[in-house]
Every structure is written in structure tokens, then in C-alpha cells.
Write a structure and sequence with these properties.
It is a single chain. This protein has a five-stranded parallel β-sheet with strand order 1-2-3-5-4, sandwiched between helices. Strand 4 (210-214), helix 7 (218-233) and strand 5 form a beta-alpha-beta unit. The radius of gyration is 19 Å and the shape is globular. The mean pLDDT is 96. With 329 residues, the protein is an alpha/beta fold. Helix 1 crosses helix 10 (290-313), helix 4 crosses helix 10 (290-313) and helix 5 (126-140) runs parallel beside helix 6 (159-170). It has helices at residues 13-38, 53-61, 76-81, 86-93, 126-140, 159-170, 218-233, 262-271, 274-284, 290-313, and strands at residues 68-70, 147-152, 175-181, 210-214, 239-244. Bound molecules: thiamine diphosphate. The site of thiamine diphosphate has 15 residues, from loops. Thiamine diphosphate binds next to loops.
Length: 329
């Protein structure tokens, strides 16, 4: 197929259709998890990325399978976009033997090394140093791999953010720091947590490029991530991307969202829904028709239904396996 929309990565229509489907897969996955949680079918806690689909799907699409990512506590979308099958992901949340981590990790510890996913992280800001280390390994071994660390706005106030950016900068490491600024930490608005207008302003302190983008615009995400990844691959060092987005749900399972207004939520859901925007953008550009868009959405929905069936039919991980796979030789 030909390329009918301008993107720096030169992705063809087929790939753009796949990205659109991925956005729906992320949304359906997290909505399903939300329902199961409410019913008490999934234990532990979970952080949903409904509303943040473009930043995950767009950035994941320009990475190679061999590149590395670190995901956040809100990491289902990053993991899906990096190519992990939703069946073992769902099974993981159900505590099943067939889960990505044999059901022992749960929502915040999904990892898949074979697919370049170094894992989600329950420690806010924990992924920065891991991705920086992976980038250092890639550089020392001359592997040509890029590491991309996903993180939230709140995590940029952690020491690990500053130490990682500094080391990555002085060593010109092939790493991209991708911040999803959804305007809130747990319940604290970002404006009360830092005294500068943009998180990307922090890049200047480390002598690296920093850019703020509309994280709900799929093409903007693709372009910015591609530029940063290519710069890293050329050996020119790290980039800080700040993608402005919004989480539709509460922070985690019990959050009455008293720190924000219904009007604000409505505005993001009606006028800034990343999937709605992508659909219009792609149809206008002739990437797909209305019918094809529905077809892609439906395929995503079916894949989640199949994932749920797979998870429910998989054996529960036995308690006797509690201590296996915990340490690496
Ligand atoms: C080091 C550390 N401090 C605090 C927490 C508790 N905690 C979990 S998520 C969170 C908010 C993180 O906000 P942000 O980085 O903006 O990500 P978002 O939840 O908005 O995606 C906090 C404080 C933690 N898990 N780890």
C-alpha cells in the first residue's frame, strides 16, 4: 500500500491501520480490566490508560522488536503497543499459568524480554534508570538498539529522572524519555508539583532536546518519537518527549476524582478523544474508509473477547510455584 499521510517514519497505510486497531485494543483491554476489577475477578490493583491510547500506540509503532521499553504502573497500553499478545496479558491479570509472568506479576509487572519489554514498574520513576542501563549496554556492545522509557509527569520529580537524564546525556546514550503528562500525579495537579510550564523544559538542564507534543494526536506522536529514536540510533544521544494527554479513569481502583471537575473530563472525552481524532484524521487522509475503521475496531474488540476466554480457560498458577522464577541465575 502507499503512504497517504505525512509521517516522518514513512509508515504506509497498512501500518497506520494496524496502529488504529492497536488503539482500540488498548481501550478495550483496559475497559474490560475495569469491569473485572469492579466484579472482584482481578485482584491487587490496576492503573488504566483509557484516554492515553495515542501516546502508547504511536510511539510503540516506530520501535523495532529488538528495541527496549520500560513501562509504567499504567503500562498495559505500552505493552500492547510493543507487540505483546493480549491473551497472556489478560491471563497474567487473572493469575493464570499462561500469563506473561506465569500469573505471578500482575498488572504492574508485565514483562516480555523476548519482545524487548523490560517490564512495567510499580516504583514511580523506576524505569528511567533501567532504560538508561539498557541503552548503555546497547552502546557498549554496539547493538544498535534504542531504549524508550515511558513515565508519568509526577515521576519527573524523582531523583532517578534527573540522574538518568544526566548520565544519558554525558554518555550520548540511545535512550528516549517519553513522558505522558496526564496533568495529575495520584491526585495532585502537575501545576502544584513544579514551577515551570513544561516538563520538556527540564531537558535544557541536561543539554538534550526536549519537546512538548499533543499526545492525543497520533501523527504528532509518531513523528516526535521517530525523530527521537532516529537521533538515538545515529549515536547523538537522548531526547525528552512530553506528550500531553489525559486519563479518563481515576488514578487506580478507588479514586473518586474529587481533584478535577466533570466539565474538564467531558471536554477531554468529547473533543480530545485520541481514537476519535485518529479515526477522523485517517478517514480524511484516505488511510481507510468508515467501513474499514469499523472493521478494525471490531477486530480489536474480538481479540479482547478471545483474550478473556483464554484467560478464563487457563489453569490458575499453583501456590507451589510461588518461589520459582523469582531469581535469575
Ligand atoms: C517511588 C514511589 N513513590 C510513590 C509511589 C506511589 N504512587 C504510585 S503512582 C503515583 C503517581 C504517579 O504519577 P505520574 O508519574 O504522573 O503517573 P500517572 O499515574 O499520572 O500515570 C504515586 C505517587 C510509588 N509507587 N513509587
Amino acid at each position: 500500500m502507499t503512504q497517504s499521510i505525512e509521517n516522518h517514519a514513512g509508515l504506509d497505510d497498512e501500518k497506520l491501520q494496524e496502529i488504529y486497531q492497536t488503539m482500540w485494543t488498548i481501550r478495550y483491554f483496559d475497559e474490560k480490566v475495569d469491569q473485572f476489577f469492579a466484579k472482584g475477578m482481578i485482584h491487587g490493583t490496576t492503573h488504566l490508560a483509557v484516554g492515553q491510547e495515542a501516546s502508547a500506540a504511536g510511539s510503540g509503532a516506530v520501535l523495532k522488536k529488538t528495541d527496549w521499553i520500560t513501562a509504567t504502573h499504567r503500562g498495559h497500553g505500552h505493552t500492547i503497543a510493543k507487540g505483546t499478545d493480549v491473551k497472556p496479558m489478560m491471563a497474567e491479570l487473572f493469575g493464570r499459568q499462561t500469563g506473561t509472568n506465569k500469573g505471578k506479576g500482575g498488572s504492574m509487572h508485565i514483562a516480555e524480554l523476548a519482545n524487548g519489554n523490560l517490564g512495567a514498574n510499580a516504583i514511580v520513576g523506576g524505569g528511567y534508570a533501567i532504560a538508561t542501563g539498557a541503552a548503555l549496554t546497547s552502546k557498549m556492545r554496539n547493538e544498535g538498539k534504542v531504549a524508550l522509557a515511558y513515565a508519568g509527569d509526577g515521576s519527573t520529580n524523582e531523583g532517578s529522572f534527573h540522574e538518568s537524564l544526566n548520565l544519558a546525556s554525558i554518555w550520548d546514550l540511545p535512550v528516549v524519555f517519553f513522558i505522558e503528562n496526564n496533568f495529575y500525579g495520584m491526585s495532585g495537579p502537575v501545576v502544584e508539583m513544579m514551577n515551570i510550564p513544561h516538563i520538556s523544559d527540564r531537558a535544557a538542564s541536561y543539554g538534550i532536546p526536549g519537546i512538548t507534543i499533543n499526545g492525543n494526536d497520533i501523527i504528532e506522536v509518531i513523528n516526535a518519537t521517530y525523530d527521537a529514536v532516529e537521533r538515538a540510533r545515529r549515536g547523538e544521544g537522548p531526547t525528552l518527549i512530553e506528550a500531553l494527554t489525559y486519563r479518563w479513569k481515576g488514578h487506580s481502583k478507588s479514586d473518586a476524582k474529587k481533584y478535577r471537575t466533570k466539565e474538564e473530563e467531558k471536554e477531554w472525552k468529547t473533543n480530545k478523544d485520541p481514537i476519535k481524532l485518529a479515526r477522523k484524521r485517517f478517514i480524511d487522509a484516505g488511510v481507510f474508509t468508515e467501513e474499514k475503521a469499523d472493521e478494525l475496531q471490531n477486530s480489536a474488540r474480538l481479540s479482547i473477547e478471545e483474550a478473556v476466554k483464554f484467560a478464563e480457560e487457563s489453569p490458575i498458577t499453583d501456590i507451589s510455584e510461588l518461589y520459582t522464577d523469582v531469581y535469575s541465575d
